[in-house]
Amino acid sequence: MTNLPGAKLILLTTTHRVAPGLLSWPAWEALRSAGRVLAGDAAHPQLAAVRAAGVEVEVVVPGSAPTLARLLTGQPAGSGPLVWLGSPDGDPGLTDALARLAVEHAGEVPEIEVLPGSYDLPGARLLDLVSVMDRLRSPGGCPWDAEQTHASLVKYLVEESFELVEAIEEGDRETLREELGDVLLQVFFHSRIAEEHPTDAFSIDDVAGDIVEKLMYRHPHVFGDTEAEGAAEVEANWETLKAAEKSERESVLDGVPAGLPSLAYAAKLVSRVRRAGFTGVPDEPYELPAGLTAESAGRLLLAVAQRAHDAGVDVDAALRAAARGYRDAVRAAEGLKAE
Question: Which of 1, 87, 203, 299 has its CA 20 to 30 A from that of 321?
């Protein structure tokens, strides 16, 4: 095959996930040395930045083979290549137009170079999720999504979290990826709702900024000048820093979410008491099998749940009530009022 006389087409690909104008140096060189620069979308996110840099851009219909043929064959000698500024949607029809061009010109094709002008940074697809959530919550979006509140989404957050746990425990990688996305959606959904609060609005950027600051503060051995030998010392430092952050708490149990499932709630309370070395409340007397193991402990808990069901007792409610009594007893022993 021969080239159309003097024709060269540079397909300059870009991503909408970076700020307009953030193109690679080879991309800017191609734009400035081009004979003509074309785009198939008048709303191309890079258009204003490229024009502001003094590069003229013409908007044409990407699916027109005759138009491409005329532009390619009409390039004056030495005028520089034709540069096509690729759109985020991939310019539907452009590939077909180039294929038709090769057929209609008896096998002659232009020299084509694909030049990446910008690249997605790690995490850049999160920007797409921001845009999707904004579209769903905005006028003209989804009526169901627009009606949701923090409270109405709680059950979905809980369900998705447990489905994620199940995927992890079962070692199902495909489901794990899907469930991570579902949990991530909940974070973005709640953050988008929070933006609409009339007096105390915050965004996903605020949420991300807060956790970045927290992680950097609690990892001084990584982001500061503290040294830590091994995971145990790292965990000890973490707990020390966390305790300093929560110094205003009255009880060792403050901050334990009461919305946890009852067994998890009870376990968290006991964990807090054990970690604090608190001995103000004796353990509940209970007959345990000798040599308790993970299996026998699981069977013991299952037996309690079975017998509670047979007796018409709501084991979740019963355990939660007992955990609350345990919490109040700890607070009373600390000289604090029961909650």
Answer: 299
Q: Where are the beta strands (DSSP E) in the chain?
A: 8-13, 36-39, 58-59, 82-85, 111-116
Please, is 49 exposed, middle or buried when counting C-beta atoms within 10 Å of its C-beta (0-12, 13-18, 19+)? middle
Query: 82 near 72, Cβ under 8 Å?
Result: yes
DSSP 215-277: HHHH-HHHHSS----HHHHHHHHHHHHHHHHTTT-SSTTTT--TTS-HHHHHHHHHHHHHHHT
The CA distances from residue 3 to 9, 63, 70, 99, 101, in Å, are 11, 20, 14, 14, 12
Residue with tokens 């425990």: 169
pLDDT in tens, 109-138: 667 889 999 988 899 999 999 999 999 999
Rounded Cα–Cα distance for residues 252 and 330 (Å)? 9
Against a cut of 0.90, is the pTM above it? no
How far apart are the C-alpha atoms of 158 and 175, rounded to whole Å?
17
Q: Which of 218, 58, 192, 78 is nearest to 133 (CA)?
A: 192
